[in-house]
Amino acid sequence: MSYTENILETVISRNPGELEFHQAVEEVLVSIRPALLKHPEFIKHKIIDRLVEPDRQIMFRVPWVDDHGILHINRGFRVQFNNSIGPYKGGLRFHPSVYLGIIKFLGFEQVFKNALTGLPIGGSKGGSDFDPHGKSDSEIMRFCQSFMTELYRYIGIFVDVPAGDIGVSSKEIGFLFGQYKRIKNAHESAILTGKGLDYGGSLIRKEATGFGLIYFLNEMLNFNNISLKNKTIIISGSGNVATYACQKAQEFEANVVAMSDSKGYIYDPSGINIETIKQIKEINKEEISNYCNYHNSAKYYPNQQDIWSIKCDIALPCATQNDINKTSAKLLIDNGITAIGEGANMPCTIDATNLFLKNNILLAPAKAANAGGVATSALEMSQNSLRLFWSSEEVDSKLKDIMANIFKSVNQACQTYDLNQNYVAGANIAGFLKVANAMLAQGIV
Length: 445
Description:
Helix content is 47%, strand content 15%. By secondary structure, it is an alpha/beta fold.
């Protein structure tokens, strides 16, 4: 059994049942084997053995009372994975599916993603199995206050800086920030990112992950002599990532024809009207099926997974993990797909990823392609620390440069380690090398 196989076996035995975490670790371990051959010092000093073990796993009770006076108990999590490059940084996810394994998978991915940005931030993740959907603002506020009453002990502007994720919008961030400020009696604006613009938030933050995905995708395609213009694109999801990926893709003159939510998907061959999507999803909070009430050219289909059967040039999975399985990947390949851009975290199963790579499909991996969100969060931290507020143009320009530099580092790793166009391995190696070198320099800690 090889060194990396031994590590994976240990990870699985130490973390039973945490399938998403196992999958994330396996992908990285397989990818970085060429780097380990070139750098035996990482094996000697057990860098990977340490890297797959979080610095700290925090789990706590979150009691809160609903509007009818009924007490509820949820679980809260924060996994601080690695701070060799900078303070821990990663979002909070509020969703019924959240458990320790999900948070560990996200935190592990965050370490490499944050390293790729070139900014001084380590990796962490947190959240709760609380579901904000269907809750009143008062109930969400009480939950957030209870959650922060415990979480505040473990975070700080030089320790760990949370942000939003699924189920945690600027509303939840506001309630969390208010409670932190009350407990600490200090306005530490850089303690949370994704804040409202009136109290330290950054322009372009909401759009950043979607915009960044398209910036990275465009760099990858251009390097391979392909243009986004006139390409047919399908997108899973209709949250912030999907919405603003659609908007930016359309600015590059691509034709986005399908989007989805958890109930189903819409197909509009004339092109998705992004303003209608914003209206029904961001303002009206309606299901995506309502899009058809505004556009006769669109049709609604109830099975979200069937979106991958639509013939397209580019697919952007922006919903959740393991959105594209091997069967879906085969459908896309048979229909002549050119490229995949991962907007969600780990949206392709390992089998799907391997199938895409085997068939020479260009794949922009999540660690690199969706790093725009955390990059802009770090820019928000910088603005807070400097007591400055940058314009949309300034933030967007910095984001575009960061995504271009991420592609350059990923592509350089591909060339250095003779990976051809395997940008999945390139991203893992580029992120790993930065973290590994920092860990090596800081000794056995």
